[in-house]
Amino acid sequence: MRGFAIARLALFVTLCAAPVAAPAHDPHGPKQSAGPGTGYAFPLPEPGSYLLPAIRSAAGGSVLDESGRPHDLMEFLRGRITVLAFLYTRCGDICPTATLQMSRLQDLAIKDRQLAGRMHLVSMSFDPDHDTPSAMAEYAAGWRSTEADAPPWHFLTAPDWAALAPVLAAYDQAVDAKPDPGAAGGPLYHIFRAFLIDPSGRIRNIYSLDFFDPDLVLTDIRTLTIDPGEDDRRMPTER
């Protein structure tokens, strides 16, 4: 637990001191920039000044919470605005950066108690062989805020690969094993995808790591509280 906290602090200091892109998972794997910039050449839009049309319905699937209790993933994707991100705890580059951004998002939400009560975060592992419920609980302890007003942050895993496969397919989450399990950055190739899901279980935005910035995501969340989605006439765009 202490190790995760130290790693989190080290990553935070590194990103603040030198806001440059982290290395991709593998030069032969999917091409993807490794992180969002901390500044913008343009101001963020005002919440509610734009639409986030429904892209498609979110998908469920068999998952386990940190206590090992079985659930359907959809139980975590309805009733509140959800930010769902896929990761694995053995990842050495993209996932720690993305999880730090999730942590920053949680910290920003704490400042608005009413908004925090309308949202939650979900981190879903795609490494069920290693990321058992207890492993996810230990990982969560290094990231999740203990503030009473923090939005809930759930850390989930799948019972096995058979249960995980349809979930990954539904969210177009590419994952593949590296030839060398001891390769730098972790044993799996993957891209990063995070999903903004409204309380009705509809995907309203999809983020690559380039756009997974806490201020931007929080602006989108505020927009959903203003526009719950009655007007879905515009064509969706993926970030």
UniProtKB/TrEMBL annotation:
<feature type="signal peptide">
    <location>
        <begin position="1"/>
        <end position="24"/>
    </location>
</feature>
<dbReference type="InterPro" id="IPR036249">
    <property type="entry name" value="Thioredoxin-like_sf"/>
</dbReference>
<keyword id="KW-0479">Metal-binding</keyword>
<keyword id="KW-0186">Copper</keyword>
<keyword id="KW-0732">Signal</keyword>
<keyword id="KW-1015">Disulfide bond</keyword>
<comment type="similarity">
    <text>Belongs to the SCO1/2 family.</text>
</comment>
<feature type="disulfide bond" description="Redox-active">
    <location>
        <begin position="91"/>
        <end position="95"/>
    </location>
</feature>
<feature type="binding site">
    <location>
        <position position="95"/>
    </location>
    <ligand>
        <name>Cu cation</name>
    </ligand>
</feature>
<protein>
    <submittedName>
        <fullName>Uncharacterized protein SCO1/SenC/PrrC, involved in biogenesis of respiratory and photosynthetic systems</fullName>
    </submittedName>
</protein>
<dbReference type="InterPro" id="IPR003782">
    <property type="entry name" value="SCO1/SenC"/>
</dbReference>
<feature type="domain" description="Thioredoxin">
    <location>
        <begin position="52"/>
        <end position="226"/>
    </location>
</feature>
<feature type="binding site">
    <location>
        <position position="91"/>
    </location>
    <ligand>
        <name>Cu cation</name>
    </ligand>
</feature>
<dbReference type="InterPro" id="IPR013766">
    <property type="entry name" value="Thioredoxin_domain"/>
</dbReference>
<dbReference type="GO" id="GO:0046872">
    <property type="term" value="F:metal ion binding"/>
</dbReference>
<dbReference type="Pfam" id="PF02630">
    <property type="entry name" value="SCO1-SenC"/>
</dbReference>
